[in-house]
Recover the amino acids of this structure.
């Protein structure tokens, strides 16, 4: 009986190692694809903007006497190409990237639950619950990843503001400069903030690429810690 229990335990651990290895490969592959997706779409939007600019310049050369009318005629199109499309793309991509991080945190916890004799399981898919599970139940030391977690938390707050408050940092009464998110937003050169109404915009895809790098490093570090503990 003892021999069978040891055999079952060995099988569970070897199986866990295999699935954890696969998770690491999958995470790196998918994040690489997402990074390429961001770059490709950035290039497509830039090309669209350049083509629109060239069209306006062509119209102005043909009809220099109608400069004001031309600008007014294409004002809405200019706003779409210059602001609306990039904003929609950047906001939706950040939401996708955060969801990817959140789901993979929970997936790692679920793998541990399935292959090790833990009685508790992560409830919900929030990253804080997953982190608590890894630390308190799976006994994975995450203390050396604290600085990465702080950065992820800032992205989480920005993502939540996009989803729940229409990209506006005003959450309570008071000036824009007194809002909890104000300094976080101001510290990112890839974000711009309207200090009159509290609305912010992701203006550079470096902000998204940076989150990919941070989340990949955090997730793969957890996987390495689990591999070392098996």
């Amino acid at each position: 009986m003892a021999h069978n229990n040891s055999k079952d335990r060995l099988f569970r651990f070897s199986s866990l190692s295999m699935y954890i290895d696969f998770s690491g490969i999958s995470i790196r592959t998918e994040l690489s694809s997402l990074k390429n997706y961001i770059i490709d779409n950035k290039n497509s939007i830039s090309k669209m903007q350049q083509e629109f600019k060239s069209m306006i310049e062509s119209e102005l050369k043909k009809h220099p006497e109608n400069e004001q009318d031309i600008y007014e005629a294409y004002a809405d199109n200019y706003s779409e190409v210059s602001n609306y499309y990039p904003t929609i793309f950047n906001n939706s991509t950040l939401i996708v990237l955060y969801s990817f991080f959140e789901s993979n945190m929970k997936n790692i916890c679920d793998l541990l639950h399935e292959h090790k004799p833990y009685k508790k399981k992560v409830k919900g898919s929030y990253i804080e619950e997953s982190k608590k599970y890894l630390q308190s139940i799976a006994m994975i030391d995450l203390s050396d990843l604290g600085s990465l977690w702080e950065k992820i938390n800032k992205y989480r707050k920005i993502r939540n503001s996009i989803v729940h408050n229409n990209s506006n940092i005003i959450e309570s009464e008071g000036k824009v400069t007194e809002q909890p998110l104000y300094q976080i937003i101001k510290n990112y050169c890839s974000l711009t903030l309207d200090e009159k109404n509290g609305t912010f915009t992701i203006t550079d895809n470096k902000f998204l690429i940076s989150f990919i790098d941070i989340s990949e490093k955090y997730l793969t570090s957890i996987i390495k810690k689990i591999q070392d503990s098996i």
